[in-house]
Write a structure and sequence with these properties.
This protein has 89 residues and is mainly alpha-helical. Helices cover 46% and strands 4% of the residues. It has 4 helices and 2 strands; from the N terminus they run H-E-H-H-E-H. Helix 1 packs across helix 2 and helix 2 crosses helix 3. The protein binds a DNA duplex (13 and 13 nucleotides) through helix 2, helix 3 and strand 2.
Length: 89
DNA sequence: CACATGACCTAAC
DNA sequence: TGTTAGGCCATGT
């Protein structure tokens, strides 16, 4: 599959794609995983810019507090909540 | 190149 | 426990 975006975004998306079903990762963890521990802010941006949702499990990415944060894809934050609840069942 | 934006994070009140 | 303020970073205008 070919991801269309900047180098940074590609890395982020690829890392997100590695998240196993039913699991969640924080934006910070993701940032560290790709080698940009301080770019967690941009990581969140990359997710919002992800045009491959929900093909890319960006809904499994949450804040460090444990809150869901947000979801720009169709369905909004509610959709994100549902998907997670369903995957964790 | 300078400025504005956002699905963030931490500390302080 | 809820809100505010400052710092951080890639992107788009």
């Amino acid at each position: 599959m070919k991801l269309d975006g900047t180098k940074f975004q590609i890395k982020v998306w690829k890392e997100i794609a590695k998240i196993p079903y039913g699991e969640t990762r924080t934006y910070k963890q993701l940032a560290e995983a790709i080698g940009y521990p301080k770019s967690y802010r941009a990581v969140a941006n990359a997710c919002s810019a992800n045009p491959y949702a929900p093909h890319i499990p960006c809904h499994r990415v949450i804040r460090s507090d444990g809150t869901l944060g947000g979801y720009s894809a169709k369905g909004g934050i509610d959709k994100k909540r549902r998907l997670l609840k369903q995957e964790m069942s």
